[in-house]
Amino acid sequence: MPDRRRASAFPAPPGAPIPGRLDARAVLGRAVIDAEFLRDPYPTYRVLREAAPLVWSDEFFGGAWLVTRHADVELVLRDARFSAQRTGGWVMQPADAAHAGRSGLQGFQRLFARAMIFLDAPDHTRVRQVMSAAFRPADLQRLVPRIERAVAERLSAVDAGAPFDFVGVLARPLPAQVIAWLMGLDDAEGAVSADVVAWSDELAHFVGAPAPNHAQALSAQTALLAMARYFDGLLARRRAALTRGAEPCDDLIGRLLQAERDGQIRGSAELLAQCVMLLFAGHETTRHLLANGLRTLLSHPEQWRQLQRDRALLPGAVRELLRFDSPVQYTGRRVTTDLVLHGQALRRGDLLVALIGAANRDPARHERPNELDITRRPAPPLAFGQGPHVCIGAALTLMEAQAVFAQLLERWPDLALTPGAPTHWTGNALYRGLNELSLQCSALMAATPAEAPTLPPSPTARSSEPACKP
After folding, report:
1. Spatial separation of the C-alpha atoms in residues 46 and 359, rounded to whole Å
2. CB within 10 Å: which end of the chain, N or C, has fewer?
3. Interhelix angle for 214-243 vs 194-207, to 10°?
4. How far is the C-alpha of 27 from the C-alpha of 411, rounded, in Å?
5. Is the Cβ–Cβ distance between 433 and 293 less than 8 Å?
6. Phi and psi of 340, rounded to 5°?
7. How far is it, in rounded angstroms, from Cα 470 to Cα 468?
8. Per-residue pLDDT tens for 308-364?
C-alpha cells in the first residue's frame, strides 16, 4: 500500500554546517530541462525522486532545491515557513548577467508582486476572502448552461468529415470566454479579445521559463502593463457609473470594486493585479487540461470506451487526468527561516521548486502511478496545489472539463487522434500543454445540430445598466 505519511521539517541549529548537496546534473548526466524533458518529463522525475528527497539544480532561477516526493511537496505547499513571496528575484534578477539589476522593470514588479498567488498571510487571506465570493458553488452552477451552450456551438461548427485542431476550436478560446463571464466582462465589448490572449501568452512565456532572461522579462512587462491598461479603463467606467448612482454588479469586478471601497483591496495597483492575474491564470491551466486530458484519453482507447459505457466515471476521470499529466508542473516557495529537511540544512531565502508533476506520479502516494486508471479510488492530485494557495478556480476548471468531455463522448463516440499528426508541445516547462491537437471523427457518427445535446435556454440577458459594462 502507498505510504501516506507526511513529511516534516525541523529548525536548523544556529551555525549548523550545510552538508554537501546532490546536484541534479550529476544525477541525470545531463540538464534537467532539455527537449526530451519537454516532450515527456516523467522519466526525469522518476530518476530525481529515487535519487534523493532534495536535489539541487542551478537551472531554476539561479539555483533551487528540487522537491519531488508527494509528502515533501505537500509540506512545502502547506507550511507557512515556505513563502509564496518570490517575485523580486524572479523579475529583478536576470538569467543573463549583462542585464544585472533589470532597470526599467519596476512597473512589472509593482503589479506582479501584488497578485494574490504571490502573497502570504495576512494579505493573502484578506485578498482571497474577496476573490472567493465569486467562486461560490451556487454562482458557478449558474454558469453551467452558458458553458454547455458555448461548447455545443463550437463543436457544431466543426466539419466532422475532416481533421480539426481541438486547441484552436475549443481548448484555447473556451476557458478565456468563461473567465470573462465570471469577471463580468460585457459580451459585446469586453469578451476576451485576441490581443488579451496574446498578452497572456507572453506572460506565460516568462512565468514558465526556469530562468527568464532580460528580453523575456521586458516582453512580459509589456504584456502585463497592456492588460493593466485594459482593466484600468474598464474599472474607470465602472467607478463613474457607480458615482452616477448605478447599482453595483454582482460579478467579480463588481465585488473587487466594492472591496476597494471597503478597504479590503488596498489601492488601484492591488486591484489591477488581481484582475490581470485572474484573467491570465483563469484560462491558461484550463486550456491545457482540456487538450492534455483529451489526448491522454484518446491515447488510452479502452479508457475512452469505459467512459462511453459509464458517464458517472467522468468526475473521477478528470481528476485522474490531472494527476496523470498535470497542466501545472511545478511551483516555487522561499524558505523564511533556517530549517532542516531530510538532513539537509536549508537557509532563509533558499528557493524550493515543488515538482507537482513528479509528486503526482510518486508510488508512495499512488499505486501504479504511471498507469492511467479512470476508476482509481479518488486521491486528490496536487495539480491544483494544496494549503492556503490551493487554486481558487479549481471547481470552475473541473466544471469546464466535464462539460467538454461529456459533449465529445455524446457527439463523437469514435473520436480519435489523427494518425500521423505530429504532437506540438508548447515547450513550456511550467505549463505543460499543446499548441495544437489534431483530431478526426467519423462523419457518419457525428451528431447533426438537431442531434446535439439538449441544453437549457439562455440565461436572461443582463441589464444594459452602465455599471455592469466595462
Report:
1. 10
2. N
3. 130
4. 48
5. no
6. -120, 125
7. 7
8. 999 999 999 999 999 999 999 999 999 999 999 999 999 999 999 999 999 999 999
